[in-house]
Amino acid sequence: MHICFVTYNKEINLTTDDRAAAAWLQAAGIAVTAVCWEDEGVSWNSFDAVIIRSTWNYYLRIREFNEWLNKLIQLDCLVLNPVSVIRLNQNKKYLADFFETGKNIPAFKYFAKNSSADISKTLLENHWDKAVIKPAVSGGAYNTWIASESTAVSDSARLNELLKNGEYIVQKFVNEILTEGEISLIFFNKFFSHAILKKPKTGDFRVQTDYGGTSVDFYPGKKIIADAAAFLLHIREPLLYARVDGVIINNDFYLMELELIEPALFFTKNNNAPQNFYRAIVALLKADAAI
Description:
The chain has helices at 16-27, 62-74, 83-89, 94-100, 119-126, 152-162, 176-179, 222-232, 273-290, and strands spanning 2-7, 31-36, 49-52, 79-80, 108-111, 130-135, 145-148, 168-172, 182-188, 191-199, 214-218, 241-249, 252-259. It is an alpha+beta fold. The chain has 3 domains: 2-80; 108-172, ATP-grasp fold, A domain (Dna Ligase, domain 1); 176-268, D-amino Acid Aminotransferase, Chain A, domain 1, CATH 3.30.470.20. α1 packs across α9. It is globular.
């Protein structure tokens, strides 16, 4: 069995985290090759599965990325996660679907491309002290910042300039990010595997390690796992992996983002994670072969 882990041009080789998973897979008899999605010379249908991993520039080249996904479909490749899931997860508008079903999601307002935003008005109408402004299509806290009444004029000017080129979301700022941190619950084949607690550095709100954030192994209770898993029930397609990022507010889990394209899966933080990932790959390959 031979699969590929798809990377991008600044991470042609595997990340340290993905190398841990690849080593486990290869020891179990699954060959893993790192391949850049931008490499035009790849025979994608020569692999038993194309597994999206560190395609971390996709949102900056969204048109080319989707053209590449079209190519994978034309070649009848087994893509994990499926292309339909990747397309849906590209735009944070998917949060509205969960919000409408009554799922716990911090309130937000969506702004379409070329629309106009008044941050002071948005804060006042929603009774928010602060809000997070972020692109609808993005990753790694790109062009993401906190707005408040004291900075609303400059925030509006900055956002309206950005809206000329894309869609944005303005979301209520959740203070628990600062006090309790953000939890990432990782599921393989929709079964819970492990969880990570991420906290921002002092004076920041971004939990990503690029901004000084830290992450440690975390052991959520059954209720939190069930709350997170409930979001996956709305997705009919198979999921090799899903990272459900959220915060706990008054003992309830609130979804921040559902990461289904290229999330870090923290294989090095949990000893069971690589084996759980292996089992999910084998199960999905067997299911595909049976179709």
